[in-house]
Amino acid sequence: MIEQGTISTLKPEKPQANNTYLADDLLTTSQLSKLIGRSNTSLERDRRYGIGIPYITIGKRSIRYRYSDVIAYLEKQRINTQN
User: Fold this and answer.
1) Could you count the other beta carbons within 10 Å of the beta carbon of residue 69?
2) What are the tens digits of pLDDT across the range 25-82?
3) Could you tell me how far CA 24 lies from the centroid of its own chain?
4) How far apart are CA 71 and CA 26, in angstroms?
5) Model pTM?
6) By Cβ atoms counted within 10 A, which residue in 37, 44, 67, 78 is the most buried?
7) What's the CA gap between 15 and 22, in Å, rounded?
8) What is the 3-state secondary structure (H, E, C) of 6-24?
9) Where are the domains of the chain?
């Protein structure tokens, strides 16, 4: 479940104590990589080809991913099985 909160700082270097994020938290490419188990390179490739998880550009070089966008993207990728 996604919790609603205020917009966090642009560079949350560490997750909260219980390793959870709020809906509006902005994650770096490295944080997202660790969270979903994909390499930084594959996330960079997705951005280059305009696919994958939506992201925010801050300035010319700073990339962030909104946690709520990450969850929404992952939910779309979910495959239901018959169990």
Assistant:
1) 17
2) 999 999 999 999 999 999 999 999 999 999 999 999 899 999 999 999 999 999 999 8
3) 10
4) 12
5) 0.73
6) 67
7) 10
8) CCCCCCCCCCCCCCCCCCC
9) 26-77
